Amino acid sequence: MTEASGPAAAPNTPPPGCPAHTAHPDAVPLSGLEYQQTPFDLYRSLRSKHGSVAPVLLDGGVPAWLVLGYSEVSYVTAHDELFARDSRRWNQWDNIPADWPLMPFVGYQPSVLFTEGAEHRRRAGVITEALESVDQFELGRECAYIADQLIASFAGRGSAELMSVYTHPLAMRAAVHMVGMPPGAADTEALVEDLRMSLDAAEGDDPVAAYIRVGERVHHLVKERRQNPAADVTSRMLEHPAGLSDEEIVQDLISVIAAAQQPTANWICNALRLLLTDERFALNVSGGRLSVSQALNEVLWLDTPTQNFIGRWAVRDTQLGGRRIRAGDCLVLGLAAANADPQIWPGAQVGSENSAHLSFSNGEHRCPYPAPLLADVIARTAVETLLERLPDLVLAVDPAELTWRPSIWMRGLTALPVQFTPVAQ
């Protein structure tokens, strides 16, 4: 590395040509330990300084807009003609390296996530009808069976770390059950690990390579189900009269599996954390004033597992929240910030029976209608079964010792250690 001629660059100044040179001068990096552990402090700070739409920097100093306001997120997601999903519109592609950590989120794929208009309705319709065919009672029974098996594996020890032995395995097994992947198989376990890596890469992970491996494994599943159909989501998508190609189904199944596994596991975890650390919340549930479904709904307001979603891309120059948004600008949907918007909760007290949160997004690109219902079946069964089998469950550490995963996208604990009276099996 050689020294540049001419005046020395100021410390921490991006090099010429870096996308940070085109960013708003007050843009705030969406990174750092403080943000990862207490994101709502940052949301309040950004809202106080910038209003409902704040300039931010993604990995590598890439500029974007974080949409914080409930009304603004609702507006963006309801107006595809202004804020579209096809990421090829992005005005920053010349500055994005091929191994950019967020490439799995923004790199264009022939997936339902990036389609628009009639094509999106066609693709989303196939997913919706395939998910509608899932028997919720059968799924509930399967989840209860999975939960019983998992609990039996640690109930006799009197202690457990629930993230690794319960919430993530349960959501994973439920997801692969729905799409027809064999539970417990090495390929299935590797798929889940690669999904985690592509959605929420840790230090040393290669999310791009992980995403490629996910595609290869799902492609194998589609090929198998093409030859040997069964009563699962994959087979129903293959048999749908819309006639999706194998590649289209592979891409859309990846979206279905990812949405069913990681967010649902963290939803379960976040609900259990509140039950174990918030006396009001726990008493309302144990006293019957709050059903488990209502408690889970309250968690979506307070600690939604999908914190931020990237994103939308401006179709043309426009205005949003008093900001001038240029054609091709990237907008990050601040779902957690919008759910906590003081404009909709002036008393800072959410309503457990109000389901108008944005945790499943909004508009044509929201989660297909059956998906939230199926996720609720999985999460509710997981929480109810655990509380029934281990009624004296308590946190094994001080609540202040719990730490959140280092992610701006997903909200979930790194670990949830608990203690309970050992149960003989």
From TrEMBL:
SUPFAM superfamilies: Cytochrome P450. The lineage of its organism: Bacteria, Bacillati, Actinomycetota, Actinomycetes, Kitasatosporales. Gene3D superfamilies: Cytochrome P450. GO terms for molecular function: heme binding; iron ion binding; monooxygenase activity; oxidoreductase activity, acting on paired donors, with incorporation or reduction of molecular oxygen. Belongs to the cytochrome P450 family. This is Cytochrome P450. It comes from the Bacteria. Residues 1-25 are annotated as: Disordered. InterPro entries: Cyt_P450_B, Cyt_P450_sf. Residues 1-11 have a biased composition (Low complexity).
